Amino acid sequence: MTISEVSEKYGLSADTLRYYERIGLLPRVPRNSAGVRDYGEKECSWVEFVRCMRGAGLSVEALTRYIRLAQEGADTAEERRDILIGQREMLKGKIAVLQEALDKLNYKIDVFYGKTRECEKNLQERV
């Protein structure tokens, strides 16, 4: 796939894909005989993984380290697992904070809806 096809498929700009490759967030993408990036299944899997992890709030640094270790091979599996476990714990904390905010919003909406319904009822009783 070309960079524009990958860009469209994963919702990332071509500039973002180039940047991710340049900083090591994506492994080097092979090029065809014309020098154009040629994304295969393996490269697309990395793009999908990085997009998902970045969307979940994982840092560029953690992902870069993970990818570098993955390229070093199976001997780094334990360290990669530890990175993912640490990121999972951080994400759980963020989810808890967001859940608390959502609960408060739901409460406020319920209170507002209840007061709105109460005001409507009082107006109807006066008429």
Keywords:
127 residues; mainly alpha; 5 helices; 75% helix; 0% strand
Question: Helices, strands, pairings?
Answer:
Layout: H1 3-10, H2 14-22, H3 41-55, H4 60-72, H5 77-126
Helix pairs in contact: 4-5
Low-confidence stretches: none
Reported for the largest beta sheet, the result is: none
Class per helix and strand makeup: mainly alpha
Shape annotation: elongated
Q: What is the share of helical residues?
A: over 70%
**Total beta strands:** 0
Q: H/E element string?
A: HHHHH
Beta-strand percent range: under 5%
Give the terminus-to-terminus CA distance.
Answer: 69 Å
Mean pLDDT across the residues is: 90
Question: In words, what does this structure look like?
Answer:
It is a single chain. The chain has 127 residues and is mostly helical. 75% of the residues lie in helices and 0% in strands. The protein is built from five helices and no strands. The protein has helices at 3-10, 14-22, 41-55, 60-72, 77-126. Helix 4 (60-72) packs antiparallel against helix 5 (77-126). The radius of gyration is 24 Å and the shape is elongated. The model has no long low-confidence stretch (mean pLDDT 90).
